[in-house]
Amino acid sequence: MSTETVTIQKLGAQGDGIANGTDGPVYVPFTLPGETVAIARIKSQGTVMSITTPSPDRQEPHCRHFGPDGVNGTCGGCTLQHAGDALYRGFKRQLVIDALKSKGLTPEVGELVVAHPGERRRVTFAARKTEKEMLIGFNQAESHHLVNIEECPISSASLIARLPAIKAIGAALAVNAEAFRITVLETATGLDIAADGLKTLSDQQRRKATETVLSMRGIARVSVNGEILIEPVKPMLDFGGVNVSPPAGSFTQATKPAEEAMAELVLAHVGKAKRVADLFAGTGTFSLRLARIGRVHAVESEDKPLAALDHAARNTQGIKPVSVERRDLFRRPLMTSELKVYDAVVFDPPRAGAEFQCKELARSTVKKIAAVSCNPLTLARDLAILVEGGYRITSVTPIDQFLWTSHVEVVATLEK
Ligand SMILES: C[S@@+](CC[C@H](N)C(=O)[O-])C[C@H]1O[C@@H](n2cnc3c(N)ncnc32)[C@H](O)[C@@H]1O
C-alpha cells in the first residue's frame, strides 16, 4: 500500500472518482471531480484518508449508514449520496450520452427523469443470522461484510418500518451463521417476501416461519428459493389499472414512479398502433397498458411471469386481446417475417440487451420501436444496429430508478 495526494478528474461509470496517480489512473470511491484528496492506494484502487479541497458540489449524505462524513461509506447500497443534485443528475445523463457516442450515435438526450427518496418498493437485502441477532442490510462495497441497517432513505418508509417483521421471518427461516438474500416487494395487498440462497428447510423451520407470518399483519406471501411457503393473500400489483399477481421472486420495476415514467414514454410513442409486440414482457408492465390501445403479443422466456400476465389479461374487461408466447429471444428472436404484422415493437431486455432481436428488427418494416433498457452500453450497441438498418432515433430519455447509485434506465424511441 502507498499513500499520495491526487486530484479527481472525473467520475467513472461506477460513480468512483478517477484521478491520474503517480503510476496510472486510480479509482477513488466517495470523491467528486475537482477534489484534492489524500489516499491510501493498492494498485489502481484508492481509499480516501482526507479531503484537502472538497468540491462545492459535495453534500451531506442522507443516511447514517453511508458513513459519518460521506467519505468512508460503509453500506454498499448507495455510492453517490455525497454528490449534489445537479452533479449527480448530470453524471447519470452523461453515462447515456457517452455510451451512445461510443457507438457513433449522437441523438439529443433528454434530461434525467429524477428519482426521490422513499420510492423504492422492491429491495434486495443481504441477510445473515448470528447467535445474537438477525442482520439485514447491504454488503459493504467489495466485501462480504454485512452492514445491518436501521434506516434506508431510498426505500419506502412503510417497507423500512416492517424491518423488525422481516427480520423475525428471516430468523425463523435461517440457521445460525447462514447468509442469504431477502427481496421485499411492497404490493397492494401486503409485503411479498422472497428468501433466496437458503439451504433446505426442515419441517420445524417451515412451521416456525409459517407461525411467525400468521402472527403478523400485512404479509402477503413468503417464498423460499422460488417456492411458496405461505401466501395468506395473493400479492397484487397494478399495471395502469390492470391487476396482476406477480409470481414469487419475479422481476418487478423497483420503483412505481420509474415504471410509470417508462410506460408513459412507451405508450406515447406507440400511439394508436393496432398490433404491438412486447418483447421480454415479464409480468406485463407494458403489455397490459398497451392492451388499452391495441392487440398485444407478449413474449417472455419465463413460464410463471407469462402465466401471471395471461391470467391478468383474461380477467380484465375492456382491454384488447393479449396473446402470450414463451420463447427464448436470445436464441430465437422474432424473425423479420414474423414481425411483419406489427405496427410497433417494445423491447425491455435484461442487462445483456437484445442484439439478435435487433438484427431481425433492423431488417423489418415495423414503423415504431420503443427500447427500454437498464444498461446504456448494450442499449447503444442495439440502437446502432437499428440505425444501421434505417431506423431514426426520435428520443432518448434517461430515467433514475436506483437513486444514489450509478445505475440508469433509458427509454429510446425509433421510427422507420
Ligand atoms: C428487465 S426485465 C423486464 C420485464 C418487463 N418488461 C417489466 O418491465 O417488468 C427483462 C425480462 O426479460 C426476460 N428474459 C430474460 N432473458 C430472456 C430471453 N432470453 N428471452 C426472453 N425473455 C427473457 C426476463 O425473464 C424478464 O422478465
From TrEMBL:
Pfam families: tRNA_U5-meth_tr
Gene Ontology MF annotations: 4 iron, 4 sulfur cluster binding; rRNA (uridine-C5-)-methyltransferase activity
GO BP terms, alphabetized: rRNA base methylation
Alphabetized UniProt keyword annotations: 4Fe-4S, Iron, Iron-sulfur, Metal-binding, Methyltransferase, S-adenosyl-L-methionine, Transferase
Full protein name: 23S rRNA (Uracil1939-C5)-methyltransferase
UniProt cross-references to InterPro entries, sorted A to Z: MeTrfase_TrmA_AS (IPR030390), NA-bd_OB-fold (IPR012340), SAM-dependent_MTases_sf (IPR029063), U5_MeTrfase_fam (IPR010280)
CDD domains: AdoMet_MTases
Organism: Rhizobium metallidurans
Top enzyme category: transferase
Domain of life where this protein originates: Bacteria
Upper taxonomic lineage: Bacteria, Pseudomonadati, Pseudomonadota, Alphaproteobacteria, Hyphomicrobiales
Keyword Amino-acid biosynthesis annotated: no
Annotated positions binding S-adenosyl-L-methionine: 253, 280, 300, 348
